[in-house]
């Protein structure tokens, strides 16, 4: 906040400057400004064009302004209404009726390279979203606000807390490549300048943390609109960077007005854990013990003090296999007697109520020739995870200057500072407090793990004697399992903090040579520096010496672009064409210093590390491009558009270092072409297009030539480009002929509207194909390498998108509704010759994979099932546990078949209500969380088979084997398992039959609700405010439908291609609060 306040000096100075400006005036013009209903509008800006001379209307909508003698034009503007220009002439009284700006917004959209185009001319599906959708019910990462809003756009909020990243996939995944630059996420472009959206680290099979992405640095208050270019033809002008689609972000700019306009927005929301678990709370800590067969074993708890050490050593305290809780005495790892009864919800005791507080302030002012917008915003987000949060400060300055009638200079600079405190670790155990909370037993109070009041989670003098011999200051653990961490130790003693400073800047100079010919140059940069520290504290059970890594990563991208454009009408034809070029340079530099163990106990600093390892990585690449576009239209209803781009790549070897990316498309507005159509048809257009795009960043710099590395990196660190000492190209034989993959797409669409546009239908079909995808093919070890990269992968995506819009009610009550729906079918066509399967990722259980399989959809889940006999009967061992078929079977796919959203908004007088429902269907999710909770006896299904509960009956066969172990036959087994056998069954099920834990990932969610009140202008007339509104806002209020047990169906712990895996990610949260917006 201090940074924010210090920055207020400049806008305040501007305020004083602009409000003191005045120009000589020779005569007075008066009038009345009204809305569409004829009601006077207070606070409307009225300015003499080309000057800073202006005024605002009074409470009745009346104004009075001095204008110079001679020719003069009044510019009348107000938020939400179309700006009007009125010639004064000799008049002294001028009334103006304002019109809503919706029509204008619907007719013009921003397309590739920031070019504005009429929607009639668009030959492919393009969706534009107002920035207001991101500033009321907010997400810390604004990209998550796209969920459910755009057909064909699949948004996944990663289960890693408010500072986490977002995964957005447009029309299905286009690449099988696992390089960071090929993770199937779109290119983001801000005001015409590409933005780096790199994710610096993700959790994997052994755990880890989500280090965030580039979109988390953007303030939603600066967004004017967001445009999604979904098809290849729409994005083809971005060539080798557009394979996954493009999201264009247009930021707010200055406007001409009297004095300085000020807009203030304050948003405060609460985050509450949305607990979806339904575990058993009848049985507590303990295990099945006894001599002989499993059938003879009985549920046992630590009933006496002398049982404590044995219970600790054998892991009784983090397993719920004890007897039924009856209020008797049990001894915990602290050696004290406790009641053997349910101690309540541990989540309520551990997690806190999170908060996010955002304040933004913007100043706009100037004339028609010189104007500006300066804004500042501050976000303070406190996570539901103790000792974790995220802060962000944003500053931006935009200016627009006209020099005469021909030369225009536009500049924009945006600065952000992000501070993430203790990003939570997810997936496997190391530092994952989330997993630790799951394992707190029913008869325990989580406060028993709090330990030292001054060092949460640590052994201390006033606490219990540790059963594993640890000393003061080390981790207090409740089990001999070294990886079974204390949740307070993980939350308070592990450190995973980082800061990032970022500057996004651009400037554009345009010269209008004639009224139909122009030239412009544009330059932009995206510079960021990230510094972080990751600490495994000394005294941690699995790593007593501790470890510390400190790192710094710098990323820089510079783009220089030039364009010459032509737009002229020849009779019934119009030609709109431009050509130009771009030069992109990208650099990445990272250094880290890792220390293991500390010389001085409990002094966690690199200088105190007992051993140190330094690592350094530097990468640079560039792309030079030429591009062009030509649009020919006939009578404004028939449009033909062609584009072309050619890129030359520094990372590739000659003659393979260039690619050509063309597109062609046409649109026909038949409602304008034909007379005599029914009056109920308001608008009708058909369109078709074809395009080719690619992905330059699928080829890592220097990977096509031989290189050596000598430094050691730490595989547990999320930032490293991992290699081993004295290796060559990480064991991958360089392929000098490697090229970026190609994505081609054909699209057909129709846009029709009926009954004065009260009903609209937009339907799209697309067919996309990726060729020459980069895969690592195994080669003979005799070569000195294990793999080589080849252009052999091929996959397809085919789908439909539907958008239905309607306005059932107009008048005193207005009801707007939109439904978007998309279906995508993907298919892996080919991999490496002789290979039909490529395993991408696995969870910690290590018996399920996310795989790419020829003939199957992208992201197939494969895993083991229970073994069956030749006649289809389930096979069990002699104790009744399932036997595993060691073959891997398709269990589903981790991406949905269908996505969509339903958006409703109502207005009545000054009130407005809006809600968004989004849904996904057809995907699967493998839940490692449910596997582990079943093994440990917490899952409700484990009640079956216990004493006094419903029996667990198996019906199948056991194998009959000979002396060599060969199966010679089968014997039937049909009986209820004894409690000890039932415990063994549930403990083995997750490892031996993974299909039991693959769930339908379909859901319907109430994603967003806003209820607002706009103060009437009559109430504001005697105040300095032009507008004021107060809203109740909420996000993720309810899951209306789901089938996945105990988890959020969206609970993916990574934003990589390994979707459909759940394993102890951050629980979902409900967000609700208030939003205040005023302008004056």
UniProtKB/TrEMBL annotation:
Claim: Hydrolase is one of the keywords in the record: no
Positions of the TonB-dependent receptor plug domain: 121-246
Subcellular localization(s) per the UniProt record: Cell outer membrane
Keywords: Cell outer membrane, Membrane, Signal, Transmembrane, Transmembrane beta strand, Transport
Membrane-topology descriptor: Multi-pass membrane protein
Keyword RNA-binding assigned: no
Signal peptide from the UniProt entry: 1-24
One cellular component term from this protein's GO annotations in UniProt: cell outer membrane
Family listed: Belongs to the TonB-dependent receptor family.
Listed name of the protein: SusC/RagA family TonB-linked outer membrane protein
Annotated source species: Chryseolinea soli
């Amino acid at each position: 906040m201090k940074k924010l306040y210090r920055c207020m000096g400049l806008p305040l100075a501007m305020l004083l400057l602009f409000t003191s400006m005045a120009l000589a005036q020779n005569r007075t013009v008066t009038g009345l400004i009204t809305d569409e209903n004829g009601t006077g509008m207070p606070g409307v800006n009225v300015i003499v064009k080309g000057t800073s001379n202006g005024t605002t209307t009074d409470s009745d909508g009346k104004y009075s302004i001095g204008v110079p003698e001679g020719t003069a034009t009044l510019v009348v503007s107000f938020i939400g209404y179309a700006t009007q220009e009125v010639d004064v002439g000799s008049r002294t009284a001028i009334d103006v009726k304002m019109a809503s700006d919706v029509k204008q917004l619907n007719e013009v959209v921003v397309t590739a390279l920031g070019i504005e185009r009429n929607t009639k001319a668009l030959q492919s599906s393009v969706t534009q979203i107002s920035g207001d959708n991101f500033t009321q019910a907010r997400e810390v990462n604004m990209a998550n606000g796209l969920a459910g809003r755009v057909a064909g756009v699949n948004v996944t909020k990663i289960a890693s807390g408010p500072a986490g990243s977002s995964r957005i996939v447009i029309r299905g995944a286009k690449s099988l490549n696992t390089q960071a630059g090929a993770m199937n996420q779109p290119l983001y472009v801000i005001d015409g300048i590409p933005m780096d959206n790199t994710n610096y680290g993700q959790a994997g099979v052994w755990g880890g943390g989500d280090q965030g992405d580039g979109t988390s640095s953007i303030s939603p208050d600066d967004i004017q609109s967001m445009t999604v270019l979904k098809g290849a033809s729409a994005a083809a002008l971005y060539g080798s960077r557009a394979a996954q689609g493009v999201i264009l972000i247009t930021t707010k700019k200055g406007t001409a007005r009297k004095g300085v306009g000020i807009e203030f927005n304050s948003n405060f929301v609460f985050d509450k854990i949305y607990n979806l678990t339904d575990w058993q709370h009848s049985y507590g800590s303990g295990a099945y013990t006894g001599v002989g067969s499993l059938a003879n074993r009985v549920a046992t708890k630590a009933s006496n003090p002398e049982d404590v050490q044995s219970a600790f050593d054998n892991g009784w305290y983090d397993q719920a296999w004890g007897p039924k809780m009856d209020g008797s005495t049990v001894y915990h790892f602290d050696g004290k007697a406790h009641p053997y009864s349910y101690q309540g919800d541990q989540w309520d005791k551990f997690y806190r109520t999170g908060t996010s507080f955002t304040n933004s302030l913007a100043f706009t002012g100037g004339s028609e020739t010189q104007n500006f917008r300066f804004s500042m915003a501050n976000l303070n987000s406190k996570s539901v995870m103790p000792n974790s949060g995220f802060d962000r400060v944003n500053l931006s300055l935009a200016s627009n200057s006209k020099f005469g009638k021909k030369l225009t200079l536009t500049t924009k600079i945006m600065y952000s500072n992000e501070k993430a405190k203790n990003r939570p670790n997810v997936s496997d155990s190391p530092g994952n407090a989330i997993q630790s909370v799951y394992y707190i037993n029913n008869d325990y109070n989580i406060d028993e793990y709090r330990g030292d009041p001054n060092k949460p989670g640590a052994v201390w003098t006033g606490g219990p004697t540790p059963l594993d011999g640890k000393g003061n200051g080390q981790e207090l653990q409740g089990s001999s399992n070294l990886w079974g961490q204390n949740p307070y130790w993980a939350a308070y003693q592990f450190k995973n903090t980082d800061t990032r400073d970022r500057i996004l800047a651009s400037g554009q100079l345009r010269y209008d040579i004639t009224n139909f010919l122009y030239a412009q140059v544009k330059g932009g940069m995206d510079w960021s520096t990230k510094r972080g520290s990751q600490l495994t504290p000394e005294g941690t059970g699995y790593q007593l010496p501790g470890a510390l890594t400190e790192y710094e990563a710098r990323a820089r991208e510079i783009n220089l672009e030039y364009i010459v454009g032509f737009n002229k009408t020849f009779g019934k034809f119009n030609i709109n064409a431009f050509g130009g070029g771009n030069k992109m340079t990208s650099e990445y530099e990272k250094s880290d210093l890792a220390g293991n163990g500390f010389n001085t106990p409990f002094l966690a600093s690199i200088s105190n590390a007992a051993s140190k390892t330094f690592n350094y990585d530097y990468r640079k690449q560039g792309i030079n491009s030429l591009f062009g576009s030509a649009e020919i239209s006939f009578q404004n209803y028939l449009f033909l558009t062609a584009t072309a781009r050619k890129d030359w790549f520094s990372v590739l070897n000659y003659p393979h270092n260039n690619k050509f990316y063309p597109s062609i498309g046409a649109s026909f507005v038949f409602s304008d072409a034909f007379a005599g159509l029914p009056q109920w048809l308001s608008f009708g257009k058909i369109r078709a297009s074809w395009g080719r795009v690619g992905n330059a960043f699928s080829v890592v710099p220097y990977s096509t030539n031989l290189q050596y590395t000598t430094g050691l990196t730490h595989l547990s660190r999320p930032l490293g480009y991992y290699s081993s000492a004295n290796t060559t190209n990480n064991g991958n034989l360089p392929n000098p002929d490697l090229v970026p993959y190609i994505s081609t797409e054909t699209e057909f669409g129709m846009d029709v509207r009926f009954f004065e546009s009260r009903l609209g239908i937009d339907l799209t079909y697309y067919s996309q194909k990726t060729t020459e995808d980069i895969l690592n093919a195994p080669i003979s070890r005799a070569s000195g390498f294990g793999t080589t990269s080849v252009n052999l992968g091929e996959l397809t995506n085919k789908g439909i998108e539907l958008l239905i819009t309607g306005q059932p009610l107009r008048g005193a009550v207005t009801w707007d509704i939109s439904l978007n729906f998309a279906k995508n079918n993907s298919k892996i066509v080919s991999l490496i010759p002789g290979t039909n399967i490529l395993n991408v990722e696995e969870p910690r259980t290590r018996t399920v994979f996310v795989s790419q399989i020829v003939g199957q959809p992208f992201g197939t889940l494969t895993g083991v099932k229970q073994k069956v006999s030749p006649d289809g009967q389930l096979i069990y061992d002699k104790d009744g546990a399932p036997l595993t078929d060691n073959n891997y079977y398709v269990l589903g796919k981790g991406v949905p078949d269908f996505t969509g959203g339903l958006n409703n908004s109502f207005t009545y007088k000054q009130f407005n209500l809006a809600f968004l429902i989004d849904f996904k269907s057809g995907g699967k999710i493998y839940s490692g969380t449910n596997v582990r909770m079943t093994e440990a006896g917490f899952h409700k299904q484990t009640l079956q088979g216990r004493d006094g509960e419903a029996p667990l009956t198996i019906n199948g066969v056991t194998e009959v084997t000979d002396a060599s172990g060969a199966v010679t036959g089968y014997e039937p087994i049909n009986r209820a398992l004894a409690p000890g056998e039932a415990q063994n069954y549930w403990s083995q099920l997750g490892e031996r039959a993974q299909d039991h834990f693959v769930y339908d990932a379909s859901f319907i969610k109430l994603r967003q609700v806003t209820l607002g009140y706009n103060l009437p202008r009559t109430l504001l007339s005697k105040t300095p405010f032009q507008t004021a509104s107060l809203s109740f806002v909420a996000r993720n209020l309810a899951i209306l439908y789901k089938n996945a047990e105990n988890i959020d169906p969206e609970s993916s712990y990574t934003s990589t291609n390994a979707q459909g895996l759940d394993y102890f990610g951050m629980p979902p949260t409900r967000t609700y609060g208030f939003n205040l917006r005023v302008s004056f």
